[in-house]
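Support case: user asked for a sample of complex input and structure output to validate their parser. Sending the pair below.
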Amino acid sequence: DIQMTQFPSSLSASVGDRVIITCRASQGISNKLVWFQQKPGKAPKSLIFAASSLQSGVPSKFSGSGSGTDFTLTISSLQPEDFATYYCQQYNSYPRTFGQGTKLEIK
Amino acid sequence: EVQLVESGGGLVQPGRSLRLSCTASGFTFADYGMSWFRQAPGKGPEWVGFIRRQAYGGTTEYAASVKGRLTISRDDSKSIAYLQMNSLKTEDTAVYYCTRAPRDSSGAWYVDNWGQGTLVTVSS
């Protein structure tokens, strides 16, 4: 199975900040990576697919990059509604696997 | 608007069975693969399995932890995906999510829309 490692596991930031979350795959996955946002008690929401393509309806403040084993999710100009847990997930092979999540908290 | 509505969750004893349904609307159900995920309390999401669209054979893939016990099927005439859960274990306790699974430009399937989830509790 491909192991996905996210860092940091938690992150404190202020409204208006720009943050970067990193995801590393244990082997190359090309660009087969998605990013999700999840708020407490809610279903995950898909943000980005194919490492850098924005899902329909997702604001452009979210951006993704990377290929191979190293990927990043950048969130610019943080707003209160952006504080949540973010997960990466690879879809290069079975089983689909997730990173452990990054909890973004208000400083 | 894409909508996915799960139903059928509840409290069930270990060893018993349960069938979850995912009713889809707002898109042509037959044109998409469908996937199930789950999330145990306080844990991250976990992929459960996937069913291809009939044009690709309607075949399935499963996580090792559920293979042989959980089965995904679909009824395109009703726009419903099912998750049949047999021989349930306490570790199957989770919120189960139905998702739509389109293909990217290379043909690999990913997830774009999620249902709201349904809670399955396996306990005696």
